[in-house]
Specification:
With 453 residues, the chain is an alpha/beta fold. It folds into three domains: 133 residues, Peptidase M64, N-terminal domain (Immunoglobulin-like); 157 residues, Collagenase (Catalytic Domain) (3-Layer(aba) Sandwich); 67 residues, no CATH class. The protein is 17% helix and 26% strand. The chain is built from eight helices and 16 strands. The strands form four sheets. Strands 9-11-10-12-14-13 form a six-stranded mixed β-sheet, with helices on both faces. Strands 5-1-2-8 form a four-stranded mixed β-sheet. Helix 3 packs across helix 5. The chain is globular, with a radius of gyration of 21 Å. The relative contact order is 0.13. Bound molecules: zinc ion (ZN). Zinc ion (ZN) binds next to helix 8.
Length: 453
């Protein structure tokens, strides 16, 4: 979970069985129009297993709306993620399109429950709809970046059982238009737990979500690179389910607290319902806005941001979670050390804002002032309860903690062995107003990856 504060239970290593395919250097960059149409192919998979095993099964194929994703930078994802999807030329093996992602399933594998019962999780991956028969490969990777499970299958664009999704009549309003569908980064904000009579409340909440994102640098300067649409479909009941109170509601996408038995963890496992509701709306990133004043939510890289709509910290937590889901940023906070680290010392994490020092040169070494000791000692201000007194700090004190780049030990839930770029950041505490310089650069790089050839 990427929603503050529960990294529970021991973690288990997954059996490594290979590495990801990298054929970019071996084949010329594909021309989008030669291989793909303007439509989207939705690949519905079930990821299943327990703490030690994984399997991937194809559940169905869906042709949805216009392709809203990249038409350049097709062969390599910017970040590795915890999984990758690749579309391949079946004869040459050349990579025609790729993307990376993370999953709720892999997160669940670290919980105690996964030691006792195998479970299955829905996942929907989007790729451009192919013009010709292609091979699709999906791989999940372990914490060492090694492939732990894989599926490979052929997709023919002429397959009559590819479900042709029809417009579902669900209402959409454009909240911000930074450019055309094939240029801008398209975000869809979906209503969840809003009844028909709460429609205007949803649109107002969605507008607050838009404003929260654009209130933060670098999104504020890069607003012209984004388009945001709000998609309203009513739920029968108001608000998500709250299992620990015995409250079960009939809502559009089955959102609920108590995910993995963690009381404040709000998610949905019904990703097909989310995608069906979004229908033919063009989107690359999803924010599910859940009608509740209770704190909760999460962000999963290139999968989903889900957030309670009206908690007092909505604005800042939404942006934190969007940092995970859009930017692949890691949590910079930490607790005491876990029995098993999610970030082993022999592997450089793929997240751009933390390091194990295994390959620090690939991170923010170039942003480090000359002579900075590693690890970097914290300043006296950082030794007090920063969250409690943050509001009393001067701008200069805040800048010291948020802008002075170093290699501070403690990040990614671990007090030791994982390092963060600054002392305080939007990815560490709610009180800090800004992303740090390293997160900011990582977000800018991601925006460039989507929008610049
Ligand atoms: Zn940061």
């Amino acid at each position: 979970m990427k929603a503050y504060c529960w990294f529970l239970g021991p973690m288990f290593l997954l059996a490594a069985c290979g590495t990801l395919r990298h054929s970019a250097a071996a084949s010329p960059a594909p021309v989008f129009e030669e291989h793909f149409t303007d439509s989207t192919l939705r690949l519905d998979y079930v990821f299943c297993g327990d703490s030690n095993h994984q399997a991937i099964y194809l559940q169905g194929l869906v042709k949805t709306g216009p392709w809203a994703g990249r038409r350049h930078n097709l062969q390599e994802p910017l970040l590795r993620g915890n999984g990758q999807v690749q579309v391949l030329d079946p004869s040459s093996g050349a990579v025609l399109y790729s993307n990376s992602f993370s999953t709720l399933f892999q997160e669940w594998q670290d919980y105690e429950e996964a030691r006792n019962v195998p479970k299955a999780f829905e996942n929907c991956l989007l790729v451009p709809f192919p013009k010709h028969t292609v091979r699709v490969e999906v791989a999940l990777t372990d914490r060492h970046g090694k492939v732990s499970s894989r599926i490979s299958h052929i997709v023919s664009p002429d397959d009559i059982l590819i479900r042709r999704l029809q417009p579902n009549g669900i209402e959409t309003r454009t909240l911000w238009e930074g450019g055309p569908i094939d240029g801008a980064i398209d975000i869809a904000i979906l209503s969840e737990g809003y009844t028909a009579s709460q429609k205007e409340q949803f649109y107002a909440d969605a507008a607050r979500a838009r404003d929260a994102i654009f209130a933060h640098s670098p999104f504020s300067e890069r607003a012209g690179d984004f388009s945001i649409r709000a998609v309203f479909a009513p739920s029968q009941d108001s608000g998500p389910s709250i299992p620990h109170l015995g409250q079960w509601h009939n809502t559009l996408t089955d959102s609920h607290f108590d995910t993995f038995y963690s009381e404040r963890y709000l998610t949905t496992s019904s990703l097909q319902k989310v995608h069906d509701a979004l229908g033919t709306v063009p989107f690359e990133h999803i924010i599910v806005l859940v009608n509740t004043p209770v704190y909760g939510g999460g962000g999963i890289y290139n999968s989903i941001t889900i957030m309670g709509s009206s908690h007092p910290t909505f604005d800042v937590v939404l942006v934190h979670e969007f940092g995970h889901a859009f930017g692949g940023l890691a949590d910079e906070y930490f607790y005491g050390d876990q029995a098993e680290t999610p970030y082993p010392a022999d592997t450089e994490p793929w997240e751009p804002n933390i390091t194990t020092l295994k390959d620090f040169a690939s991170k923010w070494k170039d942003m480090l002032p000359a002579g900075t000791p590693i690890p970097t000692p914290v300043d006296d201000l950082e030794k007090i309860d920063v969250r409690r007194v943050w509001h009393t700090f001067t701008p200069e004190q805040k800048a010291l903690l948020n802008l002075k780049v170093g290699v501070y030990e403690g990040a990614g839930y671990m007090e030791h062995g994982v390092y963060r770029p600054v002392q305080e950041c939007r990815m560490k505490i709610n009180e800090c107003e800004s992303f740090c310089p390293v997160c900011t650069r990582a977000l800018n790089r991601m925006i460039d990856y989507y929008t610049r050839k």
